[in-house]
Amino acid sequence: MTFNHQKYKPFHPIQKPDRKWPNQQITQAPKWCAVDLRDGNQALIEPMNVDQKIDLFLLLVKCGFKEIEVGFPAASQPDFDFVRKIIEDDLIPSDVCIQALTQARETLVERTFEALRGTKKAVVHVYNSTSPVQREQVFGLDKKGIKDIAIAGATMLKDTSKKYSETQWRFEYSPESFSATEPEFALEICNAVLDVWKPNPSQRAIINLPSTVECTTPNVYADQIEFMHERIDYREWIDISVHTHNDRGCAVAAAELAIMAGADRVEGTLLGNGERTGNMDIITMAMNLYTQGIDPELYLANMDEIIRTVKDCTQLPVHPRHPWAGELVFTAFSGSHQDAINKCLQQRESADAWNVAYLPIDPKDLGRSYQEIIRVNSQSGKGGAAFILQNEYGLQMPRWMQLAFSPVVQQATENHRGVLDTKTLHSLFFGTFAPAQPWALERYSWDDQQGLTATVTCDNQTFNLSGKSDGPLHALISAMSDQCGQVIEIQDYKEHAIHQDGLDTKSNAQAAAYVSLKVNGENAFGVAIATDTLGAALRACLSAINSAINAGGNSAGDTTQHNTTASNKTSHSSKSNPKSLAPTS
User: Mean pLDDT throughout 32-57?
Assistant: First the structure.
């Protein structure tokens, strides 16, 4: 087995010191032509059947493509049958032009026009290979022989189209392997084809300049396109089209630079399906324009439907990190990324221009939810859990509770060895900070004059508490301290209303309360949901006391002792017996 770079020769770019494209900027979308049904189909292990091609054709129409290459109808019966079906069943909208490919051979050209018979408008696309390796080693012809094939093909299209005068015809020519062809010869052969067609305002032509095999960097391809753009005849009445492949992984970049260099039209496929490493991915390029505030003139908001249909028709998977479309492209696992995203989204007003760290676009534009932005695993920090609980359940954890919850989540993700889903995270949060035992609130009332009156239970015993203080929380804590004979102090408190699209929408929950206590000098945290703010606050205080009991006297934030299943077990740590918080009488 060898790995020898010396067998390869470097590609020598053309000399073009007067290049203008580096100073250009794309300001509008190109004309798009989707070639999924021909070029993409030819790259499949199992080509699409007629029904699959119809499904994909209808998807392309729904996405807004106005030019769609529907196949190579002279190459196979399924291709021919598909083209006939969409014409005869009137599936082609009036503003959509279909396109068919053919080689420059009389029988194939005749068959192609027969397949397109009856359509309102169509492009017939003829091609032949022009590069030195194709001329010399495949066809055994000199430049004149290759040029004669192109002229003959162009003549066949022009003559045959006259038999089908009910259709508005346009013609397209591709010097296949253009990117590996000498620019001067590519120009010569394209001009010879155009001299046959004589494009004009009523019948424009298309010159397609493919990077059939990507053999060099995108800037060199841009030079080649600009060379043709500046010198080709009939420039006013032709569209220069590009068709890039992804052998070097630069198909999108090459197409973008080609537009800057003067091209008008781009051929490609949804999600980049095509020979070898694929065609230019139209979704990627269109979304690249979208992020610059340019209308891509395609509708891609139904991204999940696009992916589902393409996968069903092609039997090809979509990589989870595929640009713009992949399942994970808007997902942050890193704690620092999650924190930055969360902070940006919290500060953003709906009318603001989009400017969110780590999110180049709003995922909702592609039909994705904020649930998919942040997912919690062992790489995540406090911000990730807080984001999910807020966006999915309406819970706005204060920072001190985020800090307390972070090690709990960390331990759970390490034990789970994967991503915690939202339901698991929600259960973990309430299991940690809202244990229902041993203390529970049965009834309560508050009066500014009389103070707090409450009935609580513990270990099947009922206790009536009362007290006056600065407020009901301090009154409850004072009464509980007296009842238990322990030092309990309030450190912090937060409350907020829960919107109807937040947590527990099927119940009457309206308020959430969060409490931070010191219990015998140790931190303890509690949360509660109730139909009123006071009930939530009082229950949150008891939750914090229960958390301290269940943690054996340790704080929820004590990473060395905390048990993520504390809500279901009572720890009998030697540091503090849970009964120390039981009633004294």
Answer: 96
CATH number given to 440-581? 3.30.160.270
**How buried is residue 365: exposed, middle or buried, by Cβ count under 10 Å (0-12/13-18/19+)?**
middle
Look at residue 382 in the predicted model and tell me its pLDDT: 59
pLDDT tens string 390-415: 888 899 999 899 888 988 888 888 88
- CA distances in angstroms from 465 to 90, 516, 519, listed in the order given: 80, 21, 19
The one-letter amino acid at 570: T
Nearest to 338 by CA among 410, 387, 279: 387
**Strands 205-211 and 238-244, how do they pair?**
parallel
Average pLDDT, the chain: 88
User: Sign of dihedral through CA atoms 347, 352, 358, 364?
Assistant: positive
The domain at 13-314 falls in which architecture? Alpha-Beta Barrel (3.20)
Q: How far apart are CA 62 and CA 71, in angstroms?
A: 19
- From edge to edge, which strands make up the β-sheet containing 522-530? 488-497, 511-519, 522-530
Report, as an integer, the average pLDDT of 337-364.
Answer: 90
Q: What is the pLDDT of residues 104-127, one digit of tens each?
A: 999 999 999 999 999 999 999 999
pTM of the model: 0.78
Q: Is it true that 13-314 and 440-581 share their CATH fold? A: no
How would you class 353 by CB atoms within 10 Å of its CB: exposed for 0-12, middle for 13-18, buried for 19 or more?
Answer: exposed
Looking only at the bridges linking them, the beta strands covering 97-103 and 121-129 are parallel
Q: Please check whether residue 556 is in contact with residue 433, taking contact to mean a CB–CB distance below 8 angstroms.
A: yes
Domain ranges of the chain: 13-314, 335-433, 440-581
Round to whole Å and give the CA distance between 516 and 526. Answer: 7
